[in-house]
Amino acid sequence: MMISRAEGTSGSEEVDRAEEDPPRKDGESGLTVETEVLSLRRTVTLLGAISFNVGTMIGSGIFITPTSVLRNTGSVGLDLIVWSLGGVLSLLGSLTVSELACRVPKHGGLYAYIREGFGSWLAFLLAYKEVLFDNPSGLAVKSLTFSRYFVKTFDLCGTPQTLVSLVAVTLIVTLCVLNITSNRASVLVNIAFLCAKVLALLIIICGGLYWLATGKVGTSDLSKSFEGTVQNPASIAISFYFVMFSYSGWDGANNIVEEVKNPKRNVPLASLLSVAIVTCIYVLTNVSYLAVMSRQEMLSSDTVAMTWGEKVLGGGIASLIIPICVMISTSGSSNSGIFSGPRQIFSAARDGNLPEVLSYVHVTRYTPIPATFLVVSIAILFVCQSDIVTLIRFVGLANWFFYFLCAASLIIIRFRQRGKDEDIPFKQPLLVPVLFLLLSLYLTVMPQVGGVTKDLLYMCVVFALGLVLYVLFKKLKNRTNICDGPMIFLQQLLKIVPPPPYVASG
Question: Are the CB atoms for 239 and 396 separated by under 8 Å?
Fold first, then answer.
C-alpha cells in the first residue's frame, strides 16, 4: 500500500512522542504506519550549527574568487574594503535571518520566511531556484575545485577534464552516502573538516604576516593601495557577487533549524559567531595573498592558494600542504552543502510547493533521502558541463533579489506580530533589516545601470518558467493517481515515508 501524509496530525505531544518511541512497522509492507510520529531529530548542538555555517562558508570560494574580486575592483585597497564589507553585509543578513528564525522557527531558511511574508508563489520561485541552481551549482563548484587540486597535486595524467569530472563525481557520491546514512556522522565529519580547513587558512594567514614582518614584499602591491581603482559602480557591485559567493552559507543554520537543539538560542548565536569568525579569516587571508603576490600574479592565477604556496613554502613535501588543505576545505564545505541544501527542498515539498515525495524521510535514519538524491543528481550534471563564472554571477543576482524579499518579509512579519515581541528571544533595531533591504536592492539593481545584463535576462526567463511550473503544479496536484505505482515502489525501495506537519518546538 502507498503511505501518504496523514490528515490532522499536528500537536506537540505527537512530535514529542516521535523523539521517544520507535515507529511501529506494518507487517505487510515493512514500512512505518504511524507516519505522524516520524520527524527530523534534534541532534545538532551549538558547536555543530557553527561548524555547518563556517564549514559551508569556508569552501572553494576563498580559493577561486579572489582573482575575480580583484579584477572587478581594480586596486588592492578597494579589494580589501569589498572583502571587509562582505563580512558586514553577511552580519546584517545574519541578524535579519536570526530574528526571522525566532519568529518563524521552521525548516527551510529563506524559503520559510518568504512564504510567511509573501505567500507560496514567491516561496516556490525561491525553492525552484534553490533546486535547479543554488545548491547543485555550489556543490559542483566545490567538488570541481577539490578535483582540480587533487589531479594537479598528484599529477594524474596531466589534468584531463574527464578525470577531473570523475574525481568530482566520486566525492559527491561519497558524501551523499554519508549524509543519507547518518546525521550524527555527517556532523562529526564536518567538525573534523572544519578544524582542518581553519588550520589551513591559518597557515596562509601566518605565512603572509611573516612576509610582512620580515619585509619580504618585493612584488607586493599593498603599498600602492588604490592605484588602478575601478570607477564603474556596476563592476564594483559585481565584485560583491564573487565575495558573497565565498561568504554564502551565513544562513546555513536556519536551513536545519528543526534539527538544532534549543534553536531559539543556538541558531542566532551560531549565525553571529560564524560570520565574525569567517570575516576575520577572509580579510586576513586576502592580506596574505596580496602580501606575497603582486596584483598581476593574482590576476593571472586560477589557483591562487597554490601560487601562494609555491612562493612561500617552495617545493618538496611542503608544497603539498596547501593543495591538501584546499581539498580538505572543499570536501568539508561540500559535506555541509549536502546536509543543509536538501532541507530547503524538504521544507518546500512538505508545504506542497514541490512534489510531496521530496519531503519523505527514512523510517529509521530520519534523513531526507529523496531531496538529497535530487540535489546530488543535478550537481553531477553541473560537474559535467558548466561555466563557473557565469553561474556565480547569475546565482548572485537571483540571490540578492531574494535577500531583498527576505528583509521585507521580516518587516511584514514584525507588523503582523506586533504586541507579541515579549515572546521573541532575539530582536534587533528596525534599522538593521531596513539597511540590509536597501543594500540587497542596490546589489540587484546597480549591475543593470550600464545596460541590461545577460544575468538579468537569464533570471527573467528562469523565473517565468518557474511561474508556469507553479501554476501547472497547483492545478494538477492530487488530480491523478498515475504515479501511485512508482511511488509505492520507491517508498518500499528507499524505506521512506512522509513526515508529520510541522509543529514549533524548542
Answer: no
Least confident of 92-106, 135-149, 434-448, 475-489: 475-489
The set of cell numbers assigned to 437 is 533591504
Going by pLDDT thresholds of 50, 70 and 90, the confidence category of residue 501 is: low
Q: Which residues contact 197 (CB under 8 A, 6 or more apart)?
A: 55, 58, 325, 328, 329, 332, 333
- Cell digits of residue 4: 501518504
One-character DSSP codes across 261-310: SSHHHHHHHHHHHHHHHHHHHHHHHHHHHHHHS-HHHHHT-S-HHHHHHH
Quick one: 313 exposed, middle or buried, by C-beta within 10 A (0-12, 13-18, 19+)? middle
Cα–Cα–Cα angle for 16, 22, 341, rounded to 5 degrees: 70
Average pLDDT rounded to a whole number, residues 110-138: 84
Is the backbone of residue 352 left (phi > 0), alpha (psi -120 to 50) or beta? left
In terms of Cα–Cα distance, which of 296, 317, 334 is closest to 137?
Answer: 334
CA 120 to chain CA centroid, nearest Å: 22
69, 401, 422 from 440: Cα distances, Å: 18, 7, 29
**Which of 277, 296, 352, 327 lies closest to 127, judged by CA?**
352
Residues 468-500 pLDDT 10s:
888 887 776 655 455 666 777 777 777 777 776
Judged by phi (left if over 0) then psi (alpha if -120 to 50, else beta), residue 30 lies in: left
Q: Which residue has the cell 542596490?
A: 442
Task: Record the cell numbers describing residue 99, joined without a space.
Answer: 530574528
